[in-house]
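User: Please fill in residues for this 129-position structure.
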């Protein structure tokens, strides 16, 4: 599933807008992680444990958004955005959302001005004799 932050897919025509799709997840920190990261916060530097937690949450939210897009028959999701919000003292929601679309078939020029469907599965190569 193709997803992009742009309004369209370069080189492809949007033929149908299927609507907004989304995916979300809520992740909570744990007490042990909070203690070690608090110590790291005192001396400075990246809070690697939290970075990993948020990366995993974004990946999961995007995956769920793409699954929803596939369920409605989309070829791509355009205008993808991410947002986050606190839902409890130690938990955050990550939300991924965008517009599910259907795209026109890819076409290419055959060099003689003819436009042909670009689908490798339909091609057969015949060696020149």
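Assistant: Residues filled in for all 129 positions:
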């Amino acid at each position: 599933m193709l997803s992009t932050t742009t309004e369209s897919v370069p080189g492809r025509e949007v033929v149908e807008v299927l609507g907004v799709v989304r995916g979300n997840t809520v992740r909570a920190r744990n007490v042990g992680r909070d203690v070690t990261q608090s110590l790291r916060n005192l001396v400075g530097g990246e809070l690697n444990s939290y970075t990993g937690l948020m990366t995993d949450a974004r990946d999961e939210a995007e995956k769920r958004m793409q699954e929803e897009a596939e369920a409605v028959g989309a070829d791509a999701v355009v205008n993808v955005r991410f947002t986050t919000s606190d839902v409890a003292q130690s938990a955050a929601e990550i939300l991924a959302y965008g517009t599910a679309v259907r795209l026109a078939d890819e076409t290419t020029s055959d060099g003689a001005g003819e436009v042909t469907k670009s689908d490798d599965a339909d091609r057969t190569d015949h060696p020149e004799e």
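For context: The CA atoms of residues 27 and 83 lie 14 Å apart.
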